[in-house]
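Reviewers of the previous submission asked for a worked example of the structure-prediction workflow described in the proposal, so we include one complete record here. The input consisted solely of the amino acid sequence. No template or homolog information was supplied to the procedure at any stage.
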Amino acid sequence: MRILFVSFFVILIDQVSKLLVKGFSFPIINFHHNGMYEGERIRILGDFFRITFIENPGMAFGIDPGSNFKFWISIFSILASIGIIIYMYLMKKEKFTLRFSLALILGGAIGNLIDRLFYGIFYGYGPLFYGRVVDFLDVDFFHFTLFGKTFDRWPIFNVADAAVSIGVIILLIFHTKTSEKKQTDLSEENTAPIFIDNETKENISST
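From that input alone, the workflow returned the following structure tokens.
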């Protein structure tokens, strides 16, 4: 399925951006990239858009359900990703917008799953399944309250979060339009006039 290339590019961009922010090293070739220190901010468009490096131990947009749920969140993400791939295969003849939105959601889910699965081991601070998700996109949209917590800025997020959000929005918009169109077509089909030729009319009247 060529649409999976969309998922691949989302994962690639997500992971490259996270490694550039957090830093990484290849001792074999004596290469080391320092990255940013946690909490560091780089202004891009004043205070409206900044690169702010944080790590969250839980879900998207900094939502932390608690350490006891980290393992199950990862398991759920794995099963959900497998489910999306199977569904995409079954829907391979459906409209591009549906498959594209699912590919974005899949890429974003796998992008954050990689952090939770491997970053603890890769950076030496935790076991498998207990890595922290790297967030760095810091945008000042509006003040709001979520789960009882008030935010004066939008929660810091990453490329994977953005891909999932965009994919869900596209899915909601186009799936709703598609469902409405199918209902309209079905309604028109049921209410369409039935034309009967003269011969059929005579046969009906004779009975």
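The chain has one domain: 4-171. We consider this example representative of the routine output the project will generate in years two and three.
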